[in-house]
């Protein structure tokens, strides 16, 4: 009986031993909005992290490399994505379109087409997103997690799209020119990039640039009292 109990204890402990050292708090951190600015090289390094202590050090280094204003900027953009793109239990910041405005910042416009036909665009003019640029979003429609699995879309139905337009003023400096980021609205709970390679290359360019933040402007010296001479 005692031998059986020992064997059962070992069997029950085995899954925990091979499940990896990361707790639930960090296990999927690389799939959260906080990680959207990871470069490809950093994502490869994250896969080597095995303990919570290593994860904490990695995340601290990730934020430190991006400068003192990074967390504030990220928090502001996440809040806007959640406000305008959330749907049910899915947070807007956890959707592909949420990732677009978090990484690229506020667009100059948003164009949306419906299945089988076009629809009017919506200007992002409601609220600032942070990062030193003004702008916002005026629509509040459903979102989708970029880490979920896509439901099958009927091949006979035209998939609606949402296009984020970035003019020269709103385009990130890392990209350096106007561009459009288009996502397919597969359903209210899932979106996919129309051109995955192009969008991922732009995400990588901005993520790489984020590791070299611009230095904060120097404060002007205090005014000196007028000379009595």
Descriptive terms for the model:
229 residues; 7 helices; alpha+beta; 12% strand; 5-stranded antiparallel β-sheet; single chain
Would you mind describing this structure in some detail?
- This protein is an alpha+beta fold.
- The chain has one domain.
- It contains seven helices and five strands; from the N terminus they run H-H-H-H-H-H-E-E-E-E-E-H.
- Strand 1 (109-114) and strand 2 form a beta hairpin.
- The longest helix has 17 residues, at 2-18.
- The protein is globular.
Number of helices: 7
Rounded Rg = 23 Å
Uncertain residue ranges: 4-19, 116-145
Helix/strand structural class: alpha+beta
Q: Looking across the biggest beta sheet, what order are the strands in?
A: 2-1-3-4-5
The end-to-end distance, rounded to whole angstroms, is 101 Å
Mean pLDDT: 78
**Beta strand count:** 5
Helix content: 25-40%
Give helix and strand order, one letter per element, not per position: HHHHHHEEEEEH
Q: How many domains make up the 3D coordinates?
A: 1
List the helices and strands and how they pair.
Layout: H1 2-18, H2 24-27, H3 40-46, H4 52-64, H5 70-85, H6 96-104, E1 109-114, E2 117-118, E3 161-166, E4 179-187, E5 190-193, H7 196-210
Antiparallel strand pairs: 1-2, 1-3, 3-4, 4-5
Helix pairs in contact: 5-6
